[in-house]
Write a structure and sequence with these properties.
This protein is α+β, with helices and mostly antiparallel strands. The chain has 2 domains: 2-80 and 208-217, Glutaredoxin, CATH 3.40.30.10; 88-206, Glutathione S-transferase Yfyf (Class Pi), Chain A, domain 2. Helix content is 52%, strand content 6%. The chain has helices at 10-22, 65-73, 88-112, 121-145, 154-168, 171-175, 186-189, 191-200, 204-207, 212-217; strands at residues 2-5, 29-32, 53-55, 61-63. It has a 4-stranded mixed beta sheet, with helices on one face. It is globular and about 50 Å long. The two termini are 16 Å apart. Bound molecules: glutathione. Glutathione binds next to helix 3.
Length: 221
């Protein structure tokens, strides 16, 4: 199995968590590709040009981080992250809410690479609204999560991924699109989520990260 990843570790974190929980981490062959590099090799793996991308054991490609997570979860015979019971749809909605924060954050960031004078502010505000609304909804979800500390699923993985990404890159703080954004702190706005997050990141699969040395040893191909 091959995982095509980018040096920004947050983009493959959910995939690594799914592999860790399924016990197949050691079966992953890694290849580094930076999608926005001129000479990127990502197109060989994914016509949509995105990481994470993946090659299954049968040699066929897979892409879409969440699809890759579900594929890896199919090896998890003990405690799958994608429930099949009545909780499934709620969990999948939480998954897409967390991942959506990630995507909206990325879009604001990519727009902010241009000169401020030509920013598409309407578009950025729309993405900002998604981040804020999704955080409010997950704050409600977290009230149930803190009461069920033994439950762990893909909704948790994606929400924690989004929150870790906001700690690393925070375009709300950086772009200052609305008054008050200069002091934006998701922890203050989402106290239950913050309590939940500090516990969930202690889980071994969540703690596992590729080190800088790990990332450096995988050349671009
Ligand atoms: N939620 C998506 C995020 C994928 C994504 O946006 N990856 C970025 C990482 S830099 C990317 O490859 N962007 C390139 C592009 O959008 O063309 C997933 O997990 O598949």
């Amino acid at each position: 199995m091959k995982l095509v990843f980018t040096p920004n570790p947050e983009y493959i974190h959910k995939v690594l968590v799914a592999a860790y929980e399924a016990g197949v981490l050691d079966r992953l062959h890694m290849e580094r590709q930076v999608p926005f590099d001129e000479d990127t090799g990502i197109w060989r793996y994914n016509p949509l040009g995105k990481v994470p991308s993946f090659i299954m054991d049968n040699g066929k490609p897979l892409f879409g981080g969440l699809v890759i997570c579900e594929y890896l979860d199919s090896f998890n015979k003990k405690a799958p992250l994608f429930p099949r019971d009545e909780t499934r749809w709620q969990v999948l909605r939480q998954m897409i809410t967390g991942d959506g924060i990630f995507d909206a954050t990325t879009l604001i960031r990519v727009e902010s690479w241009r000169d401020r004078s030509v920013w598409n502010i309407k578009y950025m505000l729309r993405e900002r609204r998604k981040v804020m609304g999704a955080l409010r909804l997950l704050e409600e979800d977290a009230k149930e999560w803190v009461r069920q500390p033994d439950v762990f699923h893909i909704g948790h993985v994606c929400t924690a991924g989004a929150l870790s990404y906001l700690a690393l890159r925070n375009p709300i703080l950086d772009c200052k699109l609305e008054p008050g954004d200069e002091s934006f702190d998701w922890r203050k706005a989402s106290p239950t989520l913050a309590t939940w997050f500090d516990k969930i990141v202690q889980r071994p699969s969540m703690k596992f990260r590729l080190s800088k040395e790990d990332i450096g040893q995988y050349p671009k191909k």
